[in-house]
Amino acid sequence: MDVPDSPTDFPTLLRALKRALKRFGAARLASGGAFGLHLTAGLSLLVAAVAIFAAIAAAMTGGRRITVLDVQLALWFNGHAHAGLTRALWLLTQLHSTPGILVLAALLGACLYARKERYWLLTLSIAIPGGMLLNVLLKYLYMRARPGFAHPIVDLHLDTYSFPSGHTASATVLYGLLAAYFLCRTRRPLARAAIVLAAALMVALVALSRMYLGAHYLSDVLAACAESCAWLAVCLTSVSSLRRRRESRGQSTHHFNDTEAD
Question: What pTM did the predictor assign?
Fold first, then answer.
């Protein structure tokens, strides 16, 4: 068998590689398919969120400037308490405790079931309990003590670790999932912006309530947001890929049956 002349073959191989990379890139940016744009966006969000979480965790464990800001902000909140604000944020934080989040998730699940949104229901069923478990594992990994005050605003009786914030993490998963659901149902820029802002506002309020009440530092809630964005990216991307693959197989089977009938 003749061996091809490598100098002659190299330009051909280079062109073939270039075409393959172009097809791969086009497939990653295509709106359809099981591994198209949604996968690229999901992986991008996952990588960015993990990088942000890792940076915050490294700064926290390394005693960098953010830990100084943590203490300063915690002391500022503790010294500027207001009775009305305390009551409002206490109610908000109770609503987003583990039982509260589970009740809200159950209500959302009932709505999704009634609307026959089985893939969104599957995502919810994975995202909420999985996110809670991930948060507990991270707490025991870092074992950061809660903020301590001579005169706390409220006595929270907390015996768990501080980093990252569980309330903020669960709120991020819940409202992030809800935002993703509504974003898939509108193309209007103003509506989409309002959805994102509403979800971000709810997460920010929960995070504020945890810092104000003295349950968490700033870095705790920021890390919780990053943690949950990463987890939500995994859940949304995985279930979306599953749905697209099943739909693709269903279309292929339907096409095959039509061909056989002809």
Answer: 0.80
The pLDDT tens digits of the residues spanning 170-227 come to: 999 999 999 999 998 988 999 999 999 999 999 999 999 999 999 999 999 999 999 9
Domain regions of the chain by residue span? 44-253
SS (H, E, C) the chain: CCCCCHHHHHHHHHHHHHHHHHHHHHHHHCCCCCCCHHHHHHHHHHHHHHHHHHHHHHHHHCCCHHHHHHHHHHHHHHHCCCHHHHHHHHHHHHHCCHHHHHHHHHHHHHHHHHCCCHHHHHHHHHHHHHHHHHHHHHHHHHCCCCCCCCCCCCCCCCCCCCCCCHHHHHHHHHHHHHHHHHHCCCCCHHHHHHHHHHHHHHHHHHHHHHHHCCCCCHHHHHHHHHHHHHHHHHHHHHHHHHHHHHHHHHHHHHHHHHHHHC
Distance CA 92, CA 175 (A): 14
pLDDT in tens, 99-109: 999 999 999 99
d(CA 228, CA 168): 9
